[in-house]
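The authors assume throughout that readers already know how a fold can be written as discrete tokens. A single example would do more here than another paragraph of explanation. An entry of this sort, consisting of the sequence and the corresponding backbone structure tokens, reads as follows:
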Amino acid sequence: MIIRRKNPEVDLKLKYNKVLENCLILSLTILLVLFLSSSSMEVTPYAKTVQQEIIKVEDIPETHQVKKLPPPPPRPSVPIETEREDVSEEVTIESTELDLDEPPLLPPAPPPTEPVFEFYQVSEPPVTIREVIPEYPEIARKAGIGGKVFTKLLVNQQGRVDSVAVLKGPEVFIDAAVKAATQLRFKPARQNDKPVRVWVSQVFVFRLK
């Protein structure tokens, strides 16, 4: 087995301290030469001038808003008694004395209201004598939709529809259903052999053919 040894002259570990020492000395020498050879620097402080802003405060007098009121209405003329003979006797002031013995005027009596019955409360319910087919809305026809509208009709003593109440149904068919409902005609309902007003139910069906 052969043991190889380094040459002491080329072994860096042995010369590490010497090399470090020489490098430090050389660095300090260079810094000292540069410091001594550099020219001195004079620093002149810079004074910044600030322009002062002057704020003036003025007293503004308080103002009041004046509301202009409309002129007062003219005062009613007060008749004054005159002693002139050329004034007609017909131009006189009516008596303003109150007669406490006269009975007070009563307000007019309200018109009598006819009772309204439900269809099951009358002895003879109304009978449809003219049916009306509602007009199919064009927008619903193009969309291909149908539906039912449930209504409640108030039929008067002449068999005509006074009022239409929509209970439920598609909104697109409501106007057509109400229009058709007002054109219906009925044989009036009777109660005690007397024609009366009555509520009846009516369903309008919208179906594409």
